[in-house]
Every structure is written in structure tokens, then in C-alpha cells.
Records
---
Amino acid sequence: VFSVGRIKAHDGPKCLRWSREVPRTSLHWRQIVKGGDYRRHAGNEEFVVDWPPQVLAFYESKGRIYPERFVGKEEIYWSKITSVAPSFRLKCVTTEYDSVSPTLFNTEYRCDEFLLALLTCIACPSEGDCSHSEHPNRRCHVLVLPVCEAGTELKEAICTNAKNLIVSAMDDWNIFETAWDFQSLSLLSISIDPSLALDSGYTAWIANNKQAIAEMV
């Protein structure tokens, strides 16, 4: 596992936009992760970065862009500065990363679900001062964490659970209208009745939430 440089746009107002400001079909913009709130497994894909060749040349002229072999790779990232414990998440192949989102790569350039599960477990936030807002979660703190061994059966079970948590976290993220993959508002789509009024939809949504809570209890 290793970590490499990241993008520094230098001209945020010109080169960065909120995801909601750019059509999902745009070919000139790519999603970019910029840290964000405490969120584990997936999410926090709030921004897009200008990505045509001439703009990439501008980034490179400032010495702040990683080699092309790291573009569009699936890996693990986290927020560099946080007021709580670090939260590790999946970085999708459609997403790039900048200076406030350190990223872990492996030689296969794919997310290691077993490693993600270890990083998101309760044992990892004990890295002392790196969990406070005035102390960035530096790459070196993460790279020196011990990785425990696990038998094949246990490791497969852990990876399966991690994959399920990633899917759940991504589904949760995509219910927000600011997400690029947002499809519909759950408040209005909780019922299959196309003529459902807003007040009836809200009542159905509350009932659905109560049922979900009851199932967890």
C-alpha cells in the first residue's frame, strides 16, 4: 500500500464547481473528493473539477497533479483534517482527489475491502493527536498502522460485509439532491402510487422509517 501526490487546482473559483452545478453528462468535468464531513465507506463526492487537456496542463505547470497512471483508479481515501476520528471511504474510478483527501493505492489499483474494514473499525481512531482538527491525518500515520492477518474464510466474510456497507453508504449518499447520481426524492418515491400527494407521501415516508427502526430493534 502506498500514497502519492494529489491535485492542487490553485484557481478554485474557476476550476471547481459543486456537483449540482454541472450536468452529469458533461465530458469536461470530473468528480473530485475534497475531504468533507465524517462519513465512512462511501460518499462526500460533492465537487467536480475542470478536466480538459489545457486545464490539466495548467495544473501540471504548478507542479500539483499526480501521474496519469493514478487517474481514474478505485482506492481508499479519507479527510485530511477532521474534528473527530478519521473516516475512510471508497474513491470510485470516476473520481479524482485533491490535497485535502489523501489516498491509499495498492498494486492492483482497486479498493481493498479488507483494508477498508480494518481502517473503519473502532481500533483505528486511537492514533492520538491525528484525530483532532488541529492535527491533519497525515499519510504517515495511516501507513504505519499494523495490518492483522486473517484466515481465508474470515477475510472473505469481512470483505463481503465491507462491500455491503459500501453499497449502503453510496445509496444513502445518493438520496441527497446534491449527489451526481441522485435520481428521485425518497419522500416522494416511497409509494408506488403515481398520484400520491405530498402530505400523503410524507405520512408514508414516516411510516416506512418507523418500520425500519422497529426492524433494527
---
Amino acid sequence: MFRLILPILLILAAGVTSFFLIGPIFNDPSELDPVTERVTSGGIFSLQQEIEAVDEALENARRLREQMGTLETRYRSISPASLATVDKMVPADPKMILLYPELIKMAEQSGLFLENISVSLPRETTGRDQVVAKGLQDINISFSTVGSYPQLLS
């Protein structure tokens, strides 16, 4: 009888030991030692999840690189004359797009219509002339208006 109980107890002890010692290796989240920057404890499942997240990020980066390559090829296929036309038509600063409706609104309040709106950035300045508050920018605006004198007075 003793011969049968001892192996069963040893098998149970091995099972309990493996449950408490090996189980955390599979289930605990991984932790890095701040000094050596090595994994001190980590669950295999959490490490697999991290590997999957990194693989997904790498796949996204590969797709973005491919998309950037196709867009770059499409950009190079545009003729220089077309690019020059687009550069003339599109404002240099995206915030300039918000300026046009404001100018038109001010003109309409006076009963005028705007024509030939031209906005340009001034040339680079140096020294004392360059003192401008942070976030502000000097711009040159020229435009012509159309309307009657009585509309302007009213």
C-alpha cells in the first residue's frame, strides 16, 4: 500500500509545483528590470500579445511605405507646368483659406465685391525688424473692390 501512495503523492506534488511555478510563466504580464532592462518575469501569453502588436505595427508601416511609394510615383508623373499652376492656385499656408471668407464678408458689409485677391508672405527679414509675437505672421494683402459710391456710404 505504501508503495502505491508514495508515487501518487509525488505525482500530485509535481503537479502542484508545476501549477504554482510554471503557471505564472504563462500568465503573468511581463515586467522589465529598470536597471538591466531585461525581462524579469513575463507571461508567455502577454509576450505573444506584444509580439502580435509589434507585427501589426510593422505590417502597417510596410503598407504605408508602399502607399508612399505609389503616391510619390504619381507625384513625379505630374508635369512641372501643372505643378506650377497648382502652386499659384493653392495658398502657401493652409490658414490663408480662412482669410478669404473673412475678407469677402467685410467687403459685403460695405456693399462691395472683392476682385483679384492676392496674398503674399513678405521676404525674410533680419535683425530688429524680425521682432514678431509668437504665432503671428506678417502678410501682404492686395485686392481690388467693385461697387458704387452710394453703396459704400450706406
---
Amino acid sequence: MAADDPDGQDERSADAQSKRAGQPASVPATGGARTPAKAAPSPPILHVVLRPHRSLGPRGFLWLMGILSAVCFVAGAIFAALGAWPVFGFFGLDVLIIYLAFRANYRAARICEVVRVDRDVLQITRIDAKGRKKQTQFNPVWARVSLPVYRNGRNELAIVHHARRFSFARFLTDAERAAFADELRGALLTARGGPRI
């Protein structure tokens, strides 16, 4: 006959009492430390990507180059049939120059500026045609949006921070700069916690 185990009987009785009382049974500790969950980053108040406007898209560029190449080829063939064959080469050179000019224009269109406003920082990131980034940061409490209008009717969008002046969005139109200035003022006002009294 097996001997009674008083310790095991006490553990079983404690678990039984816990189940009858509707409480979970005791679970042995594993010794692992609990790590607090990281809070998700708050979304930005404003996040805008400013890009130069290009009226001719990639598909339109292909159509333009195709039509231009066909016209130059037909005209060059006519001149070559008349004996002025060097003109055919000049037509081809014209097409090449126009193509390279458009390629340079599209390469410049890769330039953009990313404006981000958070509770504690205003950040403007400039990305050039080669993908190089340059970040400039301001304190939203002291940053002020400046939009002077000159005698010729043009305006300039800038951030004034103490004695520092930072101009940006130069590739936008005057109306686009004015509209974005109002949007940026509202975002900075929100970052400050409302209007100052």
C-alpha cells in the first residue's frame, strides 16, 4: 500500500478548491520577463510630396517621338530622292536632339520635396534627380509660414525660423504655393495645440 503524500494532497485540494470557486488553478512561473508592448507611432499631421508639373506624360512622349520620327523620315527620304541626301542625316539629328532634351526634362521631374509635420518637428526633405536626400528640420512652435508677393505678381513660399529663412516649393505655380501655404499654416497650428491666446 502506497504511503500518503501530504504535500501532493494539499496541492490537489488547493486546485480543487480553486476550480469550485471559479478561479483558475495556480500556474508555475516560467521565469521569463514580460516586455511591455511598444506604442504605435502616431500618424503625421501633414505629409505631402511636392513634384514639378509635367503636362506631357510618358505615353504622350512616345506618341510625340513616333510622329516626329515618321515625319522626319518621310521628309528626309524625299530630300534624299532629290539628291540632297545630307539633309536626311540632319533630320535624324533633329530627332535625336529633341529626344535628349525630353529625357533631360523627365530626369529633372524626379526632383521632389517631402513636407511632413508632426507634433514635435517640421521636416522638409529635398530629393534631387539622382535620388540624394537633404533634410531640414524646424520646431513647429517657432516655425512661421511666409508667402510674400512681389511687384511682378509672383510669390515665394518659405519657412521663417528665428533669423533663418528657408525657401521651397519653387517649382509650383503661384496659386499652388498660396493654397499649400494655407494648408501648412493649419498643420503647424494643430502641431502647436491650437491658436495662441
